[in-house]
Design brief:
Helices cover about 0% and strands about 45% of the residues. The protein is mainly β.
């Protein structure tokens, strides 16, 4: 077994482009394959994050409406987003959808199965794209 200890990886032909070999002969750009931002937060009462990456803040914009601000902006607003949502504190099923986006923020909406806006005890999302 070998161990490689480094503080930074830099591409030979391009400093910001490292390609890794995946399954079979497929290759992936390391930078583009990384999640650029994620959060898990409680959207009820006084909202509070449980854990985050590349997030500088969360705003409560009303019942079931939240804005997440990135610590480092995305390079454009064409990034990919995925959201998830668990149960509220009373056990009811909840969903979460995506709303407006910009290079610096992403808006989320939490709602019940009957489509009414509602706060959610667990809201999560991930962002992939270019910083």
């Amino acid at each position: 077994m070998s161990t490689l200890n480094v503080d930074a990886l830099v591409g030979v032909s391009s400093a910001n482009a490292i390609t890794v070999r995946g399954e079979g002969t497929a290759t992936t750009s390391l930078q583009q394959g990384l999640v650029k931002s994620w959060i898990n937060f409680d959207g009820t009462g006084t909202i509070a994050s449980r854990d985050t990456f590349n997030v500088s803040g969360i705003a409560d914009n009303g019942t079931g409406l939240y804005t997440v601000t990135f610590a480092s902006n995305m390079s454009n607003a064409n990034y990919a987003s995925g959201v998830g949502s668990g149960e509220n504190s009373s056990g009811g099923n909840r969903m979460c959808g995506l709303r407006e986006r910009s290079t610096s923020t992403r808006e989320l909406r939490s709602f019940s199965v009957n489509s009414s806006a509602t706060d959610n005890a667990e809201v999560t999302y991930i962002i992939s794209g270019d910083l």
